[in-house]
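Attaching the record inline, Q. Sequence:
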Amino acid sequence: FHHIIWMGDLNYRLDLARGLPRAANWDHEVKWKHINNIVQAARYDELAVFDELRGERELGNAFASFSEGPLHFPPTFKVVRGLPTSSYQILRLPSYCDRIMWHSLPRHARHITLVEYSSMEQYCTSDHKPVYAVFELAIPKRIRRFGSVVPTSAVKCTVDVLLLRVHVIDTGRRAVGNGGASGNVHDGNEPGGDSA
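Structure, as predicted:
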């Protein structure tokens, strides 16, 4: 493997005591209101200090070598079913249970770029809001056995759950196998070659 993308309900929660020691003595309702006020004000960056997964990654206890994008979206759990926005059940603290992270071999780390990472609030059939990520991958045509120089001619591939686009950077390469998926192939010299 060159890249691993790990996703799912990892069940990590927001623990206010991680960044706000006095919160250890608060009752559940006060903690819930504190988190909910931050969420309603869309100050999601402030929640990162309370995130158990980020804390465990920083300590090297879990997913230590994995990367994750910033959490610039509301917590994804435990929401009220049937509502197209993030309204939270009082029984649980709002949390970022649903996550997408990636890990690359050191030699290939610069070949993957996170383009977008967010949740899909419009889906309301579960007590979780789904998350999605869009990555851009540069796939070298030839991997050298030794050395770490990336070939200048490579296939550039943007993979999206909703849309698969393939762009060919190397003008000499005209056909790309798509594994049964549909997509457009451009060599960058055609009109619209940079937009798929």
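The two ends are 27 Å apart (CA to CA). Confidence is low (pLDDT under 50) at residues 160-196.

More tomorrow.
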